[in-house]
Amino acid sequence: MNKSGLTQQEALFEYCLRIGDTSLILGQRISEWCGHAPILEEDIAMSNISLDLIGQSRIILTYAGTVEGKGRSEDELAYHRDARQYRNLLMVEQPNGDFGVTMAKQYLVSVYNFHLYEMLSKSKDAAVAAFAAKSLKEVAYHLRHSSDWVLRLGDGTEESHRRIQEAMNDLWYFVDDMFQSDAIDDMLLKAGIAADLSEVKKKWEQMVHATLDKAKLVLPVANNSLRMGSRDGNHTEHLGYILAEMQFLPRAYPDAKW
Amino acid sequence: MNTGTAHIRQLLSNVLDPEVPALTIEDLGILRDIQTTSDGFEIFITPTFTGCPAMKVIEEDIEEVLRAEGITNFKITTILAPAWTTDWMTESGKQKLKEYGIAPPSWSTEQHLKAMLSGKKEQVHCPFCDSSNTRLTSAFGSTACKALHYCDNCHQPFEEFKCH
Q: Which of A128, A229, A255, B156 is most deeply buried (CB count within 10 A of its CB)?
């Protein structure tokens, strides 16, 4: 895609997909825990977080369809695009692993979304601002929940500490991808619509470093240069499996209605 | 407000929230506005949480109440801004919640957001015995808008309508 040749409308469509796909895929991922969590309260918590994320993705994907102007609904965008057309962060498509991996991932993305949405709530695009202000309140709960677990596992038993440290180390390969900005970000930032990802990064680092320190975890070091590309639809192998499950029904039975 | 919208508002004062049927959609602040349009009425509602599965049912309930009165010239519009907050919950709504056995939100949204970031947790009073000797079991409960607590005074688990 030649991003520098995009109109502002086309850029905004892409930008909404990035936000909406990230929420949708993370929501779908966490929903895999439904019925499998270590304790009932956690099962309920993860289903709730999943519901929030899917609710958020519905709003912004509906808006993406409006911006695009080709009559595509939220369902068409969610169920009838292939992996290469998805724009979610690589981080959220990674497998759930154990509970530590799931919570570490939830925490890293919640901090990201918290600061991103805080900035987007001041966006000059009224629909983006309304979406962000609304979602921010929900993300604050996700953030508190996952950071409680990072502290508890990190500063817990030898086994829990080892597992969440390994989870952070593995997930760190996907951190750079979260902050990679391109011509679309630049264009929309100038228009006062998008958030400045370098600012999001500063706030993200500040919060995450403080939490890891408090949780007695070591800040991971990773060479991330090869693990990027979500904004161009270059995903890890995991996304295809998620989509296969998520999209099966509406693709197999195209006219199926609830 | 003219007599037309006042009449609609009166009719809608009977529409209950499907998940917390102790409260009306007005008590909860879900019903935002009623306006007259060139050919009827426009009713504005807003979701509590983005993924709230009750929105569709609420729309259907509004339709049912109005159609039962022979009113068909209306349109229901969902709005997102300003974002719904528990600050909009009416005092009578809070009282009804408590009587229903759910602790009402104890803080304003502003206090709550500050506390979220500082890690401080709100002091929630047990709806059964009023004790503040309670603890949070989980910030996520049976519906998106509720948290689970336990009262160490009367030893009852209870739900709280969480600050938002």
A: A128
